Amino acid sequence: LAAAHALMKAGVPTLVLEKESRLAEPWHRRHQRLHLNTHRDLSTLPGVGYPAGTPAFPHKSAVIRHLNDFSQAHGLPIAFGVAVEEITFDGDHWT
Q1: What is the mean pLDDT of residues 17-21?
Q2: Which single residue of 28, 50, 59, 83 could bond 54 by disulfide (Cβ 3.0 to 4.6 Å)?
Q3: How many structural domains is the chain composed of?
């Protein structure tokens, strides 16, 4: 998501291809007591921090919200349900 944001800021046409039907699917699937194992200040995405009062090691629900908030705040174009199986460089672009 951060790479897509940086590419968009640089004016590069960008589309995030996501195999799953929603963002942060691996976080959704993990056990209910899961917390981030790095400090929240080391795990933020550009321009969107965790809300005040978020514990130092956020619960998975806060991480999921953070990823979704970042995507929405920056209008990231995401195509869900798209599994990339192969990429090739065709002289001047990737397909």
Answers
A1: 97
A2: 50
A3: 1
44 Cβ contact list (under 8 Å, min separation 6): 50, 66
Q: By three-state DSSP, how is residue 85 classified?
A: coil
pLDDT digits (tens, 9 = 90+) for 41-82: 999 999 888 999 999 999 999 999 999 999 999 999 999 999
Considering only CA atoms, give the Rg of the chain: 15
Reported as a single tens digit per residue, the pLDDT across 3-15 is: 999 999 999 999 9
* Domain containing residue 37: 2-80
Measured distance CA(92)–CA(58) in Å, rounded: 42
For the CA atoms of 50, 7, 17, 80, the dihedral, rounded to the nearest 10 degrees, stands at 50
Q: Rounded distance, CA 57 to CA 36, Å?
A: 5
Assess if residue 30 is contained within a domain.
yes
Encoding tokens for residue 44? 């933020």
pLDDT greater than 90 at residue 95: no
